[in-house]
Amino acid sequence: MGVTVTVDDSTGGEGLLRAPLVIEYPFNRTTGPVVGAFVSALRDRRVLGIRAADGRVVCPPVEYDPQTGAPLEEMVEVAATGTVTTWSWVPEAREGQPLQTPHALALVQLDGADTSVLHVVDAPGPEALSTGARVRIRWAAEPTGAITDIECFELDGGAS
């Protein structure tokens, strides 16, 4: 990205200084053992959480307990079904959103997890969705090892 910097020396516009400036972030970050395991499992159409010392299962998994700061290591599989804990309706999709039709942004607590994941829910309208609604993952057709391997959640008419 190129940026032009202009400095005005308050002399009526004379003596302007112009210099090109390139802003770069030339580094890569690895996913590490916890996020790496999570995205690898998504590629295999499985969802992993991580067990905290008090037994809670945090999903998506994190390297350190958000309450105590203790390192976490025990990965556990959670279900591909869950419960909407809160949501907001998006009546007009914007460029770059996961779905190009109206949808919900929701926190979904997957069965077996004690925390929620933020993702989209494909529902026919806001009247079809409610807090407490049961949903299931709709997997992407071609998994790549990223959160987008969960294409979205969809309403699950089955029993919990």
List the defining traits of the structure above.
OB fold (Dihydrolipoamide Acetyltransferase, E2P); mainly beta; single chain; 160 residues; 3-stranded antiparallel β-sheet; 10 strands
Task: Give a description of the structure.
With 160 residues, this protein is mostly beta strands. The protein has one domain: OB fold (Dihydrolipoamide Acetyltransferase, E2P) (Beta Barrel), CATH 2.40.50.840. The chain has one helix and ten strands. The protein has a five-stranded mixed β-barrel. The chain is globular and about 70 Å long. The mean pLDDT is 89.
What is the straight-line distance between the termini?
50 Å
The helix/strand class is mainly beta
CATH topology: OB fold (Dihydrolipoamide Acetyltransferase, E2P)
Count of discrete domains? 1
For the report, how would you describe the main beta sheet? 5 strands, mixed, barrel
Number of strands: 10
Top CATH class: Mainly Beta
**Oligomeric category:** single chain
Provide a brief overview of the structure.
The chain contains one helix and ten strands; from the N terminus they run ββαββββββββ. With 160 residues, it is mainly beta. The chain has one domain: OB fold (Dihydrolipoamide Acetyltransferase, E2P) (Beta Barrel), CATH 2.40.50.
